[in-house]
Recover the amino acids of this structure.
């Protein structure tokens, strides 16, 4: 894609330096035994490398902080050093914590001054298009303190009463209006001060950083996500990701 087709990135705070934090300290048990999920290969390249490249593909991102498993920090740094990354983007590797929330906090703590917009991106979303990354950044530059890329739901959703025994039938208690529901992706974008305040205030275990900002009473906005920004968590997802990558290499020279 040519630079001319990307968002202008000249919103309310043009030129604001952007950093991306990629928590990659999890083991990824749903993909089965073996290497941590972020180090599994996709098209012969670790998913983590794809995720770093996806963030660095944006002209606005000048720093990527990778939060690695504490025992594998040196291995992750060597792995990233061995793969070509855009020279305009610096990459820093720091040890992570026991939970995703702790790892993001450690990544935030490692950010140098000056990066007032922060993206938080799942290492398990290796194929997010640069247009999605830029759309999130643009929304923060336009004044939003928290931005999530999101997709409408294709399936009808049921709210159930969880079964006490795994595999047992679960009573349906409600059918939410799916037109008001969205499947949220990453990268999520934040005003740095707001995200730091959220991590210093919210102690509940949450599934994403935008939820923490919501608990502060701040407004979170959604921008259109992309179907190719799906999360690779199960073996079938890995097969789909390989197919997407093969199509990109064939059509776009990706």
């Amino acid at each position: 894609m040519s630079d001319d087709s990307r968002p202008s990135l000249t919103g309310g705070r043009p030129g604001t330096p952007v950093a991306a934090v990629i928590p990659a300290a999890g083991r990824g048990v749903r993909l089965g035994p073996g290497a941590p999920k972020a180090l599994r290969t996709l098209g012969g390249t670790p998913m983590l490398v794809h995720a770093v490249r996806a963030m660095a593909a944006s002209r606005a991102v000048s720093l990527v902080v990778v939060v690695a498993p504490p025992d594998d920090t040196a291995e992750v740094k060597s792995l990233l050093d061995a793969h070509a990354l855009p020279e305009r983007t610096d990459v820093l590797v720091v040890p992570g914590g026991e939970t995703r929330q702790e790892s993001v906090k450690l990544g935030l703590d490692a950010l140098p001054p000056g990066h007032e917009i922060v993206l938080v991106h799942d290492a398990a979303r290796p194929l997010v298009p640069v247009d999605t990354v830029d759309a999130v950044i643009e929304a923060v530059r336009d004044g939003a303190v928290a931005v999530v890329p999101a997709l409408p739901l294709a399936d009808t959703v049921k709210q159930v009463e969880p079964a006490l025994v795994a595999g047992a039938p679960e009573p349906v208690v409600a059918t939410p209006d799916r037109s008001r529901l969205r499947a949220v992706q990453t990268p999520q974008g934040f005003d740095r001060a707001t995200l730091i305040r959220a991590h210093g205030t919210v102690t509940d275990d949450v599934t994403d950083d935008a939820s923490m900002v919501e608990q502060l009473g701040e407004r979170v906005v959604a921008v259109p996500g992309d179907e190719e920004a799906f999360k690779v968590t199960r073996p079938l997802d890995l097969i789909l990701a390989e197919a997407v990558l093969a199509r990109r290499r064939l059509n776009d020279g990706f």
